[in-house]
Amino acid sequence: MGTRIEVLWKQALKTFSGRKSTGYKLCLKNFEKLRCLINEITAEDVYVDRKVLDFVRIQPAPMCVIDVFENHDIAISVFILKTGVTLPMHDHPEMHGLLKVISGVVKIDSYTIESESDKVLEQDKLIPAVKHPPVIVRPSDSACVLTPLVRNLHEITCLEGPCAFLDILSPPYDTNTLGEGKRPCTFFKEAISDEMSDAVQLVVTDVPPTFYSRSIKYLGQPLRRS
């Protein structure tokens, strides 16, 4: 049957393979099974142990990234943030995603843009959005889900760390969209907020110069089709 990460990987392929094909439609039954499987994943399943976390702790980079698998349909990665570090608010253009915390504690602020498309790239333009209530997420909690239109933007802060979370995105950022090249990862910040409601105005911004990441090697067996 394989390890838990192998079972998860195969289900992710089954759920998202062929999404570039004409007429592709996400099977909600497959997606729900994928969500259930990722909820079972632990740090040990992706070889994130105390040595890895201690290594991240002494790195100058605020975040480390472990690439587990990527093809044209899915990307599976582990992100590790130091305590107090915030992964700035960013989007996932036309993507579905699942995020499972496997170590530490994070706070996630999610946003839904109030437009027909999440491809908002104009600088200095106010973008109306809904800010969802922040959630505190631990390894015992279920995976967080984003879709192309709902909760597509998020900001993640490490409250207790280093924290690690497993991410599945489909399609990956490196997959072309509409013949225009790689999907851009756009960063945002709140420009206007209303304390009496969940309505906010966002603007496109640059990545903070102090935020960057370092890649580290995945210590498990490579995931390959048989």
TL;DR?
This is 2-aminoethanethiol dioxygenase. Keywords: Iron, Metal-binding, Oxidoreductase. With 226 residues, this protein is mostly beta strands.
Can you describe what's shown?
By secondary structure, the protein is mainly beta. The chain has a single domain (48-215), classed as Jelly Rolls, CATH 2.60.120.10. 14% of the residues lie in helices and 38% in strands. Strands 1, 2, 3, 4, 5, 6, 7, 8, 9, 10 and 11 form an eleven-stranded mixed sheet that branches. The model has no long low-confidence stretch (mean pLDDT 91).
Topology:
Elements: H1 4-16, H2 28-38, H3 50-57, E1 63-70, E2 75-81, E3 86-90, E4 96-113, E5 127-131, E6 135-137, E7 144-146, E8 153-170, E9 187-193, E10 199-205, E11 213-216
Parallel strand pairs: 1-11
Antiparallel strand pairs: 1-2, 2-8, 3-8, 4-5, 4-6, 4-7, 4-8, 5-10, 9-10
GO molecular function, one term: oxidoreductase activity, acting on single donors with incorporation of molecular oxygen, incorporation of two atoms of oxygen
Keywords: Iron, Metal-binding, Oxidoreductase
Organism: Nasonia vitripennis
